[in-house]
Amino acid sequence: MTSKHIPYSRQTIDDSDIQAVTEVLKSDFLSQGPSIRAFEAALRDYLNVKHAIVCSNGTSALHLSYLASELQSATVFTTPITFAATSNMLHAVGARICFVDVDPLTGIMDTEALKEALGTTSPSSKKAIVPVSLQGIAANLPVIHELAKKYRATVIEDAAHSFGGTYIFGGETYKSASCVHTDLATLSFHPLKTITCGEGGAVITNDDRLAERVRLFLNHGLRSQPDTYVREQKVWGYNDRMSELQAALGLSQLKRIDTFVEKRRAIARYYLEFLSKEPYASHLTCVPYHEGSSYHLFVVHFKDRKKRDFAYRKLKENGVETGVHYLPLYEYQGYRELLGELSLSGADTYARGCLSLPIYPNLSRDAQAYVLDKLAAVCQNL
What we know:
With 382 residues, the protein is an alpha/beta fold.
């Protein structure tokens, strides 16, 4: 084993972040104060949306969105290639989960498979679609938007991977999570995401009613009557509030989001320059460079699980940490018990060989070259 260690991702913190948090510690508010309001306003400005509601983490952002959308007993179409929170929170609110197949290279929801699945539902049944960004690439939101209108479905974009990224439609460029083609979007500010609050999340929407409901569920379901101490219990809510410390860090980080994304894109370009050549090309495939991706992950695909697992072990022995994002959720015991045995060809193909290489803004060029050198050695021994 080597003493060298390169994580597959890590947070990027500088003195301005530390100063922002320190100032809050010296202030009068550690919760429900001015940093929350400032962070929400900055998110609204960045995304050009009406409402940005920050919360304790990305999972609570999903939960709040599902509660606000009243998905109890609804049929919800989503992807099995995602972190468990996307579907776990659907189960938590009593929705019926329907997994839709994905593109075998990108892992993103296949809109033809979605169209086929929607076509099997009753016109009167309550439906929702939860497309998930992956690697930093937004799902095909304009097409999903059109399908949602046809089948009267709510669309909630899980944009945890793609914050800071964009997509193009009709010659126009749109930001992921801007809610131009969705009803709501959710963000995560986990340490490994585009920006971090330590932990944290946000719900984004242009719908006043949905925003009001999210805020109710966020804060115990209580609404204060103006100019009085009386509170009304409007819904059965939760405490999903973000702290002032988290908000101050997020606000500081948001000022550098475009720099963070460009650094990630530069690393992706560097990797791709070499991975199209030998010894990599005979053993790996990659998603072509995507101009709009925020490159939350950089994923390569081996031809089968055995070779991927060999690469995972050998790279780890040489101090290079990688990840598998993700195995299909229907392989998890809980989902097998809930939904029975499932197999979707695109999802199975994606999961068989996917491996995430290190990528984060402060990953040095020397470290990038080291990753490629050790990956070359792996390929030469497959």
